[in-house]
Every structure is written in structure tokens, then in C-alpha cells.
Design a protein that fits this description.
The protein is α+β, with helices and mostly antiparallel strands. The chain has helices at residues 20-23, 43-51, 60-65, 84-91, 118-131; strands at residues 3-11, 15-18, 25-28, 31-39, 70-79, 96-97, 112-115, 137-140. Pfam families: DUF123.
Length: 141
């Protein structure tokens, strides 16, 4: 199964986190973030990887999720279509993007967005899927 996904991530406290060599150390506010990604080979394996505590640090989001105070709390995903940049473009009009995060293989400004709260984040992700007429699924972690 292939598809795209949005990880709703809760950061429990303000943190400075090293995000690989290119981005360096970034400051993250306490709150809710949405990371937009794709898995065009195995969506289930990618989501399990993100949920795992033991993995090699490869993607920007891996560096974020390795922190004890960062936790995935929800996953919203779709099957079969690669729409991560479409979702990201919608989210950037409703949230603050973390510049250059998770978008090294496309022309987006970011694939990680900060929201005021969980409800707002979920609402905007669902609206993003509705705006491109793609059905999404919801997992509460």
C-alpha cells in the first residue's frame, strides 16, 4: 500500500533540536506540529518506522521524533495518491512553516507546520484533503 500522511506531533516543551547537518539546530515552541510526508513503496512500513524508537536518523522528522518530549499523537493519511505537496501548500496558508524542513526533494518551503492546538491542526489537514477531493483516514495514537 502506498500513499501520503500527516503526522500530528506534540512537542511538550520549548526545545532546541539538531535537525541534521543542513538545517542545524532549530528552536521549536511547545505545541502541535503537522509533518507531511509520502511513502510510495510501503505506507504501513513508513508509519511503523516513524512510530518506532529505534531507527537510523535519515529524514528531518527522524531527528525531531527522537526527542523524548516529541510524540506523534495522530496520523491522517491517504492511499494510492502522492499529494504531499498539495497538502503542504494548503497548510502553509493556515499555519507557520518551519523553513526547509522535510522538503529537500521538492519545491515546497516546508513540510512541517506549527498550529495553535490539536483541533485546529486536524481541521486544517482534513480541509486540505477536501480541497483536493482526496479521501483521508484518521488514526489516533
Amino acid at each position: 500500500m502506498k500513499g501520503c500522511y500527516c503526522l500530528v506531533i506534540y512537542i511538550k516543551k520549548k526545545s532546541e533540536i539538531g535537525i541534521g547537518k543542513k538545517l542545524g539546530v532549530l528552536e521549536f515552541k511547545k505545541g502541535i506540529y503537522v509533518y507531511v510526508g509520502s511513502a510510495m513503496n510501503s505506507l504501513e512500513a513508513r508509519l511503523n518506522r516513524h512510530l518506532s524508537d529505534s531507527k537510523k536518523l535519515h529524514w528531518h522528522v527522524d531527528y525531531l521524533l527522537k526527542e523524548d518530549n516529541c510524540k506523534i499523537i495522530d496520523i491522517i493519511y491517504n492511499i494510492d495518491k502522492k499529494v504531499e505537496c498539495d497538502i503542504s501548500q494548503h497548510l502553509k496558508t493556515h499555519a507557520v512553516g518551519i523553513k526547509n524542513f522535510g522538503c529537500s526533494d521538492c519545491n515546497c518551503e516546508s513540510h512541517l507546520y506549527f498550529f495553535k492546538n490539536r483541533s485546529e491542526a486536524i481541521e486544517h489537514v482534513k480541509n486540505a484533503y477536501d480541497s483536493i477531493a482526496i479521501e483521508c483516514n484518521f488514526l489516533k495514537i
